[in-house]
Amino acid sequence: MLYTICFAYVCCDIARKASETIKCLREAEDDCLTEKQTRTALKRKGVFAIISSKDVPTKKVLPLYYLRQYAEDMFKISKSNADILPLRVHSERTLRGCLFINFLSVVIYKNMRSMMPKKINLEEALMQMKNMHCKVFEDNNVIPSEPNKKQKDILNAINNTVGRF
User: Fold this and answer.
1) pLDDT band for position 103 (50/70/90)?
2) Minimal CA–CA distance to 157: which of 105, 110, 122, 133?
3) What are the DSSP E strand ranges found in 18-147?
């Protein structure tokens, strides 16, 4: 017989409870809920449960929960914004390699997006930069083409010296 030990953590995030309580009270007023109905609705605000196969110190449960949420957000970015294709792998080693490349691409994407000024969309910036070329000579000297106005704005935004004249 195989036994699996699971740990259940019931948590209350105070910040989340506060925001959910405010939202609940507004909705209760709008929906004309009774005091009893409102109290019942407020009981569970900010409370959630986590099931884990590992024993986690109490202080680390909440940070781990938000770390998981952060990881899910990163994968959401890679699937929707970065157009990364679904994984079709046949070994754990290949899966780990694909996940590592996926992680790196999301990190680069998020960093570049944070560098862009509000007026420049990252996808538009990448399309603009795709049109920038360079000439590579036999002695390995590289001379980039002169960037246009938008390309200069993008290069300045990411603090890059490539193409500055």
Assistant:
1) confident
2) 122
3) 47-52, 134-136, 142-144
